[in-house]
Amino acid sequence: MSASLWAHVPQAWREPLASVQETVATLDGLISSEIASGFEVVPNYESIFASLEVDPKNVRLVILGQDPYPNTKHAIGLAFATPTDTKPLPGSLRNIFKEIASDTGANSKADVNLKSWISQDVLLLNTSLTTRHGQSGAHANWPWSEVTDQIMQTVTSNNPEVVALLWGKSAQEYAHLFQSHLAISTAHPSPLSASRGFLGSKPFTKANEMLLAQGGKPIAW
Predict the structure, then answer these.
(1) What is the pTM of this model?
(2) How big is the CA angle at 171 (ends 70 and 45), to the nearest 5 degrees?
(3) Is 71 exposed, middle or buried (0-12, 13-18, 19+ CB in 10 A)?
(4) Looking at the DSSP assignment, which residues form a beta bridge with residue 135?
(5) How far apart are CA 82 and CA 115, in angstroms?
(6) Where are the alpha helices (DSSP H) in 37-143?
(7) Which of 53, 31, 21, 32 is nearest to 150 (CA)?
C-alpha cells in the first residue's frame, strides 16, 4: 500500500467526504490489520473507491448492493461489475443480465465491467466497500456504513431526484435517503435470493421511466 486509503478518494469527493475522513483512516487501519493477519482483502487497495469515478454532481442513478464479490478475480470496486473477459460470470451478474433481457426485451450491450453504465452517470455502490477473499460479509461490522451513508447523502444533496435501485436488505436500509417514489427496492440478484423478488421485478424499465419523467435520458442497459 503506497499511500493512505484517503489518497484513493477521487478529488471531486474529498470535500463532501471530509466529515468521514477519520472513519476512512480507521478503515485503513482495519485493512492493514486484516492483511497482517494473513487475510486477503478485496477488491485490491487501489480499487476500493473505484465507484466514485462518477462526479457527485452528475450522478443520476444509484445501484446499491451489499459488498464486493469475495473473489480477487471478480471484485473491481464497482458493485456487480467484473473484469472484462471474466468467465464464468458471478451468479449475481448473470441474473442482472437475465433480468435486463426479460425486462427490456433485448440483451444488454454492456461489457461485464459495466463501464458503459458509469459513463451514463450511474453510481455502482456497495454498502460495504471491502470483504475478505472467500468470505461474503466479512467486513459488514466495519464502519463502512458511515462512509456509504455520506456518499449517498452527497448524491441526494446534489440531485434530490436521483433514482435508486436498492438490491437486498443491506441496500434497503438506506431507502430513507432517497425520495420514496424514486427508490426501487427488490431482492438481491444473487442466486440465493434472485427468485424471491429480483427476477421479474423490471427495475431497468421502471428506472428509465422515472428518468424520462424528469426530462432526463434513459440508461442504455
Answers:
(1) 0.96
(2) 40
(3) middle
(4) 132
(5) 10
(6) 91-104, 115-118
(7) 21
Asked if residue 131 lies in contact with residue 137, where contact means CB atoms within 8 angstroms, the answer is: yes
Joined together, the cell numbers standing for residue 92 give 449475481
C-alpha count within 13 angstroms, C-beta hemisphere, residue 45: 16
Q: Is 55 among the residues known to form the active site?
A: no
**Catalytic residue chosen out of the listed positions 28, 55, 67, 85:** 67
Q: Residue 203 corresponds to which cell in the numbers above?
A: 427495475
CATH architecture label of 5-213 = 3-Layer(aba) Sandwich (3.40)
Q: pLDDT for 22-61, tens place per residue?
A: 999 999 999 999 999 999 999 999 999 999 999 999 999 9
Residue type, 44: N
